[in-house]
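Standup notes
- DV: blocked on the single-chain target, sequence here:
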Amino acid sequence: MKAIRIRKRIKSDTLKLPQLKKLVGKDVELLIVATEIAKNGRLADRRFPLRGTEYSFDDPFSPAVPAKDWDANK
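- DV (later): unblocked, structure below
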């Protein structure tokens, strides 16, 4: 199953989505989600909730605990 993402501004109660022509006659599920506008005027991307915040990671791939604290290595 392939997902199709289409971002449009809704101007009326009728949607024309020519991108879906290949799905005519098939059963589909439509999910409409209102997007949020971020402080910078762009669409807020929920995949990266910390983007634009004061949080940062100096070394995100370093171990959370020292190797000597792991019992699994013994």
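- Follow-up: The mean pLDDT is 79.
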